[in-house]
Specification:
heterodimer, A: alpha/beta, Peroxisomal Thiolase, Chain A, domain 1, 2 domains, two-stranded antiparallel sheet, B: mainly beta, 5-stranded antiparallel beta sheet, 3-stranded antiparallel beta sheet, 1 helix, 8 strands, about 5% helix, globular
Amino acid sequence: MARDPFKRTVALAGVAESECGHGAGLSVLQHQALAASRALDDAGIAKSEVDAVLAVGFQGLPSVQIAEYLGIKPRFTDTTVTGGSAFENLVEHGALAIAAGLCEVALITYGSTLWSDRRRVTDGGGLDLTAPAAQFDTPYGDLSPISAYALATTRHMHRFGTTSEQLAEVAVSTRKWASLNPRALVREPITVDDVLDSPMVSSPLHKLDCCLMTDGGGAVVLTSAERARDLRKSPVYLLGSGFSSTHLTIGQMEHLTSTGAVESGRRAFGLAGIKPEDVDVVEIYDSFTISVVLALEDLGFCQKGEGGSFVQGGRLGPGGALPANTSGGGLSHTHPGALGIFLIIEAVRQLRGECGERQVPGAGLSCVHGIGGWLSSHATLVLGR
Amino acid sequence: MANYEGPLPRPDKDSEPYWEGTRRHELLLQQCSACRRFRFYPRSLCPFCFSDGFDWRAATGRGSVYSFTVVHRAPSPAFRDKVPYVLALIELEEGVRMMSNVVDCDPARVRIGMPVVVVFDAVTDEITLPKFKPAPGTPP
């Protein structure tokens, strides 16, 4: 294992969303700008101090564009396009740059109008028509990305006996958290039967096994522990990170039941010097109920194949043994196409003790896990006070 | 056939022989001339041993369902009158896995491990999509 590159030298100092949901009517850049200004306010750091911009979410040259829009001339930048997990990567990359002295205040931003644009995104639109997925998957009516996760679900059920009822428990627990979060888009409690009775989308995944589609934006401000020391709010530190991509298209995934989270989690926990059982609150990319089950297994919260029974009995919900996706996640809070930044925002708020009714008492360690593509890219962070 | 509105592959330098093959009702796979492993999708070097030598081989067309999903919500208007249909990952005898549809079969009958054989669906004059149906003798 590499030496700990972070050693509490990098802090997550500010976090914020824009106006997420269905009604804001903002452009992609407006979402990014609103989230950025709120996150800097949250940190108590002036825009003039930002010397690094890391962004995705705008076509073309995202970080260069958002820096220009905000009037920032960064000396470090990164755009990493790994799908929804990109923000866990950007925290890692920004932290490494800060630890190496390349910059002092790094602003990570994201914005999306997925909901407003939704008619353009369900048919593989935007794929280069010669791309492998466009040639070998899309012609067969692949309902991307849902069908890929459905294929993984069928396989998991076949190998381990996982049931739709068990998967539904993920959605039920997540909705309970959402009911405690005034920012969540859907807050009405649901039951396992509600999930099973919702329309089948791509079997065995029902509508309520699938995340929301919204507009939205988010931002995170990273800085050195030294700079964070005299800020208004107590800093949250990056303790460990890890990344793994194992394939892009689902047909190339070696085993549909084991993901890159095995590797990204091992590295992140190793760097942080902790074990899954030390974690107080997890924020896992809940694009689909199966995503959470696979990640819990592969990160080591339970044994491979036991994820279905692990999530039963409200374990992930309020009052459960492993509070998960406490904002309401992608299933019930918001999902503008890339969820990773919202997982980080919620983890920071939990570790600061700012979560009101949904606060996990005494939360001191959080694991954040992003998933991108078709179970393709995995990025794990361990954050702590 | 002329009115086919579904998304079509656009063959490229790697895949032209593959799509020419399906038009002739042949399912061609690349086999590495160094490590002898088959690969899918077509590409210019072996993802296992990195050799750039390969031959195109006709697959037997036999395989089995590795996993499947019944799609109920059409991904685009072209699929609206086709739902529900079976989208599957097929494991061919040669060891490679490809996405396709299981056709000529009630979706409720499809199972993981079910033996299938290739059929060729000429959706346009240029493009023929390999699809799969239950192997003869598969119990209903």
